[in-house]
From TrEMBL:
Superkingdom of source: Bacteria
RNA polymerase sigma-70 region domain sequence ranges: 24-91
SUPFAM superfamilies according to UniProt: Sigma2 domain of RNA polymerase sigma factors (SSF88946), Sigma3 and sigma4 domains of RNA polymerase sigma factors (SSF88659)
Residues of the RNA polymerase sigma factor 70 region 4 type domain: 121-173
Lineage: Bacteria, Pseudomonadati, Bacteroidota, Flavobacteriia, Flavobacteriales
Protein name from the UniProt record: RNA polymerase sigma factor
UniProt KW keywords: DNA-binding, Sigma factor, Transcription, Transcription regulation
Record GO biological process: DNA-templated transcription initiation
Length: 180
């Protein structure tokens, strides 16, 4: 396992930046992809957002101060890029957030990269009904199994608020999935 401080030093060193960046991508690409994919739903959109995330990280790594863990900083950038992507798409298509979510779910049904069964599709539909913050908290806790302390660092909010958001999200999803 690589030492995070060592990796940051390499990323911020002009001599080692490119090599260290390749290492960073190999370490975080898959986890960030799935984090983004749960937000934007589409494989192609997730790939685009992931690429934008890594471009932003590459351009801004010298500004990373180490006030949070590196992966928290990466997740925060990925989350913001994914949300920005959703907002741009909604604006471009002249849709509100709810309509954009609905479109994303409909597109998920025809996405050749979506390997879920009917129950996963229903779960995604249920998640799409949640407010943005509850969606983020639920996805990070349920799919990525992140700790509340990690989510707190990524979303820059208190653990108590996150626990409440997750609990409410779970109740709403259960209600959605059990209604006829």
């Amino acid at each position: 396992m690589i030492d995070e401080n060592q990796l940051i030093a390499q990323l911020q060193s002009q001599d080692q930046k490119n090599h260290a960046f390749k290492k960073l991508i190999s370490l975080y690409k898959e986890r960030l992809y799935w984090h983004i994919r749960h937000i934007v739903k589409s494989h192609d959109d997730a790939d685009d957002v992931l690429q934008n995330t890594f471009i932003k990280v590459f351009k801004n790594i010298d500004n990373f101060k180490g006030e949070s863990k590196l992966y928290s900083w990466l997740y925060r950038i990925a989350t913001n890029e994914a949300l920005t992507h959703l907002k741009k798409n909604a604006k471009r298509l002249n849709l509100n957030n709810e309509e954009a979510n609905s479109l994303a779910i409909n597109n998920l049904e025809s996405d050749v990269y979506f390997e879920g069964e009917e129950i996963q599709l229903q779960l995604q539909k249920a998640i799409a009904t949640l407010p943005e913050k509850q969606q983020l908290v639920f996805n990070m806790k349920y799919f990525q199994d992140l700790k509340y302390s990690e989510i707190s660092e990524i979303l820059e909010t208190s653990e108590g608020a996150l626990k409440a958001s997750y609990h409410i999200a779970v109740k709403k999803i259960e209600t959605y999935l059990t209604q006829d």
